[in-house]
Amino acid sequence: MNNLMMIMNLKKSGIMKFKISNEIKLSLPSLLWLLVFFMIPTVIVVLISFKNPDPFGGIGVGWSINGFSDIMNSYFAVILWRTVKLSLLTTIICLLLAMPVAIYMAKADAKIQNLLLLLIVIPFWTNFLIRIYAWKTVLHPEGFLKKIFFTFGLVPENGSLLYNEGAVLLVLVYAYLPFAILPLYTAIEKFDFRLIEAARDLGSGAVRSFVKIFLPGISQGIISAVMVVFIPALGSYVIPDMVGGPDGEMLGNKIAQMVFIDRNLPKGSALSTLLILAVILPGLIRIFIKKSNLTEAIARHKRPKVMQ
Predict the structure, then answer these.
(1) 0.85 surpassed by pTM
(2) Fewer CB within 10 Å: N-end or C-end of the chain?
(3) Helices 110-121 and 74-107, axial angle in degrees (round to 10)
(4) Into which CATH architecture does domain 73-297 fall?
(5) Domains of the chain: which residue ranges?
C-alpha cells in the first residue's frame, strides 16, 4: 500500500511539473514582451530621474536627486492633487453609473445583452481623438449645450463649459465608463441572484442584502473595474490637454511639457516615476489584501475546533 501511495504521489508531482513547465512555455512570449517593452523602459525612466539635466536637452553626467527636489513644491503638489482627485472622482462616478447598467444587462435576455454590448463597444470603432474633438465642439462657448444652459440660467453669459476641471471630469467619465461596465457585467452575470432572495426571506433588508451579499459576490469585478479606470485616468494626457486648459492640467501634461518644451528629461522622468508609483500602489494594495485574506483563511482552517 505504501509503495502504491508513493507511486501515485510521484505521478502527481510529475504531472504538476509538466503542467507548470507548459504554463511557463506558453507565458514566455508575453513575459518577454512585457520585459522588453514595459519593464526595461520603466527602469530606464527611473534611472534618468536620478541624472543631471543637460543644457542642450539631453542627459548630463553624474547622479543627482535635483529632479525630485525641484518638483517638491506647492505648484506640483496642486497638480498632483488635481490628478489624484479627478482620477478618484472618475472612478467613483464610473462605478455608480456602470453598476445599474451591468445589473440590467446581466438580467436581460440574450438579444438585449448582445445589443447593449454592441452599443457599449461601438464608440471604440471611432478614433479616440475624434471623440474628444467632438466633446470639445459640444462644450464650445458657442455650442448648443452652452446656449441651452444659458437659456435656463445654469451658466452666465460669459461662462465657459470648456477649460476647467468639470470638463476634464466629464470627458474622463465618458472615455472610461465602458471599461467599468464590462468587468462588472462579467462578474454580475455569474452571480447567483437566488442568494439575494434567500437573504430577503431570512429577514435581511434590500440595502443590507446588497451590501453584505451582492457586493462581496462581485468583488473581483469591482476591483477590476477600479483598476482599469483609475490607472489610465491617472496618466491621462490628451483629455486634459484638449478640454482642460491651465485650470485642468494633470500630471501627464506637465510631463509632456518638461520633456518636449522645457527639454528637462530628468525632471520629466522624476514626475513619471511619481506617476509610476501612483499606478503601482493600487496593485500592491490589492495583492496585500488578497494575501491577508488568504493568510486569514488558512489560519482559520487550521484553528482547532473546540469540542462542546
Answers:
(1) no
(2) C
(3) 160
(4) Orthogonal Bundle (1.10)
(5) 73-297
